[in-house]
Specification:
By secondary structure, this protein is an alpha/beta fold. The protein has helices at 3-6, 36-39, 44-57, 70-82, 100-109, 147-160; strands at residues 19-24, 61-66, 87-91, 113-117, 139-142. Helix 5 links the parallel strand 3 and strand 4. The protein is globular and about 45 Å long. The structure holds ligand CA2.
Length: 161
């Protein structure tokens, strides 16, 4: 079925650029202000600015979205399909360990994604060791701090070419 029939927009924006969506889950808006030993010193604004620069250099449109609300995150993932988003970079935050709804949304839109965690979730409390996303992700990066996002974007840029 073509894009017209499915209601999907073209995978490129009006300027002919491909789109990548970065989704940040709950509490990641607090980055840089607390727990820097676990999550680093970069704020979410720093991370998004660095990713935007990297995407611009590759002539790709980057959309960054953060929410503390599960339904808003589900809505954003669903909208990505109609926007022709080619790739998603996702840090589900605490929803990593709980959200069947976000997992279902990603499975439904069938957009390839990389799961990113600032901290090494396998070296922390036992409840953080399970992710509802890892088995349907293209790959998982964890424990590399904010560099993990840049590595994920580098991968995505190569993947969508
Ligand atoms: O390591 C990660 O990126 C996490 O996704 C971060 C989540 C945590 O629940 C996951 O297990 C692993 C928590 C994000 C909270 O971020 C904060 C940042 C600064 C201060 C307090 C929380």
């Amino acid at each position: 079925m073509n894009a017209k029939k499915t209601g999907q927009k073209s995978a490129r924006n009006a300027n002919g650029k491909q789109r990548i969506l970065v989704v940040h889950g709950p509490n990641l808006n607090l980055l840089g202000s607390r727990e820097p030993d676990i999550y680093g010193l970069d704020s979410l604004g720093d991370i998004n600015a660095s990713l935007a620069k990297q995407a611009k250099a590759a002539s790709v449109e980057l959309i960054s979205f953060q929410s503390n609300h599960e339904g808003d995150l589900v809505d954003r993932i669903q909208a990505a399909r109609n926007e022709g988003v080619a790739f998603i970079i996702l840090n589900p935050g605490g929803y990593t360990h709980t959200s069947v709804a976000m997992r279902d949304a990603l499975a439904a839109v069938a957009i390839p994604f990389v799961e990113v965690h600032l901290s090494n979730i396998h070296a922390r409390e036992p409840f953080r060791r399970h992710s509802h996303f890892s088995d349907i992700a293209v790959g998982v990066i964890c424990g590399l701090g904010s560099q993990g996002y840049r590595l994920a974007l580098d991968f995505a840029l190569n993947r969508i070419r």
